Amino acid sequence: MTCCVLRRVVSLLFVSLLLWPAPNVWANNVPVDGVFVPWGSIADHDDAVSFRLNTASTGFQEGWIFSLTHTGLRVPWEPTAAQDPSLNGDGLALFWSQRFLGLLSTSVGLQYLYPDSANAAGEQLGAHLRASLGSAVLIHPTLSTSLTAHLLIGDEVGFSNLFQFDVGLLWRPLNILSVGVNVRNVLAPRFGTVVTPRTWEVGLSIRPLSNARLSLSADVSLPETTGRIDFRYRLEGEPLHGWVLGASFAHSANYQNNFIPGMGVMVGAYLAFRFGRVGVSSTGMIGLGNQTTFQNMTVSAWVRGKPHRPLIRTGGKMVLLDLGGTLPERQLGLTLTAGQPTFLRVLQALYRIAYDPKVVGLLLRLGNLRCSVAKLEELREALEAIRKKKKKIVVYATGMNLRTYFVASVADKVFMSPVGNVQLGGLASRRIFWADTFAKVGVKAEFLKFGKYKTAPNTYTKTGFTPAHKEASNALLDDLFGVLQKGLSKSRGRKLSVIKSWFRHGIFSAAQAKKRGLVDDVFYWDMFEQKLRKHIKIPYTFDVKYVRRRYVKERWRGRDKIAVIYVDGAIVSGPNLDDPLFGTHLSGSRTIVKLLIKARFDPSVKGVVLRVDSPGGSVIAADTIWRYVEKLKRVKPVVVSMGGVAASGGYYVAAPAHEILAMPGTITGSIGIYTGKFDFSGLMKKIGAHVKIQKRGEMADIFSPFRAFSKLQRKQLLASILVNYEQFLDKVVKGRKMKLEKVKRLAAGRVWSGIRAKKHGLIDDFGGLWKAIERVRIRAQIPKQAKLDVVGWPRFPSWRLSLSGLPSISVQRGPSTAHILQTLQRYKQIFQRLQSVNVWAVEPNEVTVQ
């Protein structure tokens, strides 16, 4: 709401200033618009002098820029030259601009202008300062508006404390097109007895290659009351990253005198060198005409927060990357892990290292990884891609659990601290059964399900593993454990029997790990460089900022893209819900559907990867998402990438895709549903509470927690979820193009590893997120050499719950009952979202890697 109001106010102010009346008066010797800038266009300049040309361009700026510009060296001076303010403007200028929050930019300028030459009457404009403050607002991703105020300070009569205002607009609807409008001296302030003229400027810029490598621009400047119109044309190219060349041509005409040529023509040349965050440029101009001949030289230097691609890139880089934690699919909020890079960002960094010819190796510092077996496999694939490019990988860790060591084992060399240890515990499947506990307190779990392997309700209805539960769980553990053992055998070059002996030993001290061949050397971190040069014989230099480094965008509107849409966490109806305090997150069907519709109608989105890392959830929510995946599939490629778990409702939403990819260690399947409730009537009786129900209709209290299902209710409910189960089967039959009999054999709620899922046709191939992106590229018939953007949606966490008031308890005088109840009320939204679901397709299978 605030952004909308701000945009409306800015738009109204912009129009009002344009309509402000200007007196029809003009003086021969008036303050100029500032230091003369002979290069650039008001339509496309986003660099150090953007503020001087058109403040609206800073609305598209990335980060901050500080620049120093000097212009001068004009010879010879003719008396008639001083009669035209456009020929004045020698001086020194400092500009700084910063973009905030992607919406608002602020710019500050300080210009010192040297004294002008005397005009024909002998008058001279003395040296003066021009202080400027401007702001630009991005009122639309393609449109920026600006307002700039200037304060002129000097010794001239009527000159000190003179204010001038400029308004600007910049529109970039396409990668190839930018249109700028600027109005200077919009209020036409008086300078002594005369008035500074309002000047209208319009610029058009075209980028034929859709990027910054080649730009052509044309600008028109029309000072009111002068009768003159100025034209400037510019060609700028960047043959190599960081080396910019250009040429310009300018002329003027008098439109009040049949467009007779005015002061002649000016030609110029431009040269700039960009060295990442810093850069220098120089512009030379020569003016030839019937009034004056002059020469000009302008030089600029700048430093910026976000670098350009540099002219000089040294090779032999050894990239340093720190990796640990859960590696979340997307940024989830203000949790303790919120600062972690997303899994997609990590993969992008690793594959960028693999294909960058300037990189010779990777130094990977590993902390405790806490992600699924499937994600660990994807990390290993990315590291193996680096090794296939003949680049070295070195790992250093203080200590390693099984997850960390599984990834580290891919490296050429594995080093660790002398005080650390390596723990190879294995896998464990844990489930707590509450049936006896509930019986003791008078609570009865009543659940109905389809599929003997649908074990989610067993937690509440059984006292241990059923034979079917044990069968599926053992098969899953065998498969995942095999993935880990075979992976270690391959990457460390040891026989499988040796790897099995490692697991029998379990825990290794640093010295034992080196002796048994788990690691290659043991030393403290401060000895790392010395030891590394002993093990790695290639020349290298460390690059600690490689992964975090982001260059200035070369395009105005971005490239064609592949969208990665995340379905992670439990699937529920309504919007996504991300709790920033504890990291709880739900995938809401409303949010996912909006993103699927956006991808369907956005012409820049060439295909979609549906990244599913979910145990399932509400059948209704899953079916809603299924419907829009099916609709998207008809017009664009859709490939599913399964994460650690894509089971039950997670498999439901994946079924209609063109292709389903999963890792061997993915947990999937669980095609089945259940419903039920808890009956607290026994507990109420134990504590002496009496619940009386009056109803109209047999089903009115079907999900009441204070009575058991009646026979009729149970019969009707079973018939209802049978329909849901058959619909689930039908979705799989159509999506996977399988016979119903086969799907029924694979269903019944059974979970499968990725290995068995591929064998039975539930997935198409092994592969992770990166391979899914490549499969979308192929299906969309995008050439391999074409550059694409890969974007993750949703981009930001959904904080609807939290921003309405973070749960908190005041501790100034101790937590009062009111404070506690207020906190619980805020979390009630989560419980209500889950409680409203009556039919579930979820698989809470928990496999821990120790």
Report on this structure.
This protein is an alpha/beta fold. It has three domains: 2-299, Beta Barrel (Porin); 317-433 and 452-543, Alpha-Beta Complex (2-enoyl-CoA Hydratase, Chain A, domain 1), CATH 3.90.226; 561-849, 2-enoyl-CoA Hydratase, Chain A, domain 1, CATH 3.90.226.10. The strands form eight sheets. The chain has a 14-stranded antiparallel beta barrel with strand order 1-2-3-4-5-6-7-10-11-12-13-14-15-16. Strands 27, 31, 33, 34, 35, 37, 38 and 39 form an eight-stranded mixed beta sheet that branches. The chain has a six-stranded parallel beta sheet with strand order 25-20-19-18-17-26. Helix 12 (589-601) runs parallel beside helix 13. The longest helix has 26 residues, at 467-492. The protein is globular, with a radius of gyration of 34 Å. Mean pLDDT is 84; it is low at 12-29, 75-87, 118-123, 334-338 and 800-837.
Q: Nutshell version of this structure?
A:
This protein has 850 residues and is α/β, with parallel strands linked by helices. It contains 21 helices and 41 strands.
Question: Which terms summarize this structure?
Answer:
2-enoyl-CoA Hydratase, Chain A, domain 1, 850 residues, alpha/beta
What fold name stands as the CATH topology of the largest domain? Porin
Shape designation: globular
Instruction: Flag low-confidence runs.
Output: 12-29, 75-87, 118-123, 334-338, 800-837
CATH class group of the largest domain:
Mainly Beta
CATH superfamily of the largest domain: Outer membrane protein transport protein (OMPP1/FadL/TodX)
Distance between termini? 49 Å
Annotation, overall tally of beta strands: 41
Q: Give the helix level as a range of percent.
A: 25-40%
